[in-house]
Amino acid sequence: MTSSPPTPRPLEGVRVLDAATFIAGPFSTAILAEFGAEVIKVEQPGTGDSCRQFGTRTERGDSLVFLSEARNKRSVTLDLRKPEGAKVFKALAAQSHVVCESFRPGTMERWGVGWADLRAVNPALVMLRISGYGQDGPYADRPGFARIAHAVGGLTHLAGMPDGPPVTPGSTSLGDYMTGLFGTVGVLMALRHAERTGEGQEIDIALYESVFRVLDELAPRYVRDGTVRGREGAGTLNACPHGHFECADGAWVAIACTSDRMFVRLTEVMGRADLAERYGTTAARLADRATVDGVVQAWTRSMPRDQVVRVCTDGHVPCGPINTIADILDDPHFAARRNLVEILAEGVGPVTLPNVLPRLSATPGRIDHAGPALGADTDTVLADLLGLSEAERAALRADGVI
């Protein structure tokens, strides 16, 4: 019995040069690759993307982070700092639809492969540029990583307990991943415009901007009445009870009552109708937050976590376990939704990775392979796309260009 060919993916025929390093840009291009784009990862000869050394090392010498975020890509080594390397890069850009880079502003220009240089050889090119502070402005030259973006963008100030220091808001790479998502959206919109007009464009995203963009009412509230929100701990100033509660077995749950109706449901499953009468409005609950949270905490501590979740779920109260990664790997819902996938990585063996998002019904994305070995596709790409002979490639290799 012969198997049917894989479903065509929506970005097949799109070629992307990924010269970005670390996470934000590579995450953006990984999404494009999942949905069919041919992504050629351009890396420094000898060392490659610094993301190869970020996180847990594998048997192959690079990291699990790299295996995940270089999924479906081809690896080409090319030293853009050398004139011959820049020449090869421009030749590749002339045959591509998208270039992604994440160097400090002005770096690509110094190498002769900036926006003006690449647009001259390919007017329809889309160029995604991710940096700490953007391509212009007084901070443009400053180095930036996600942790700095969390701080500058306003998120770190909000993270932590009210009487404690600001803390890292979850993953130190959160801002990278958010920026990568905005980058993907920008590329798709720019490609649509290029299809209609033949005109490419530059996409300029700063890491701190993606962090700032998701802080709900922070800006309008301050401008309106001068409120500077601070750290709210496990709760929020806008709803109650709305936080994290310990259970009898030492595990934790999150409960979110964002409306009076939801609070009534909670009081019903708790068997405390008196609370609905006394604290029936959000204003009343916020005015006596400590008491309300204390009563809910005493109730959740009377049962193990799974029972709390089950009772709340049966009563239509929003509640979920605060999962560790061990919990997630054992969760039937994650399994049913296929949120994790096992991929065989060359030189490493099977690795488990987060699966493709979003899920498309007609043209779903997929993971064909994990991140490649450094330079695995250099000869093939340069021969097939640029027609470079074996002797020409050998000369480039001898000069340290590839």
Automatic annotation (TrEMBL):
An MF annotation (GO) of this entry: CoA-transferase activity
Record flagged with keyword Transferase: yes
Presence of the UniProt keyword Transferase in the record: yes
Superkingdom of source: Bacteria
One Pfam short name: CoA_transf_3
Assigned keywords, A-Z: Transferase
InterPro entries assigned to the protein according to its UniProt record, in alphabetical order: CoA-transferase_III_domain, CoA-Trfase_fam_III, CoA-Trfase_III_dom3_sf, CoA-Trfase_III_dom_1_sf
Name of the protein: CoA transferase
Lineage: Bacteria, Pseudomonadati, Pseudomonadota, Alphaproteobacteria, Rhodospirillales
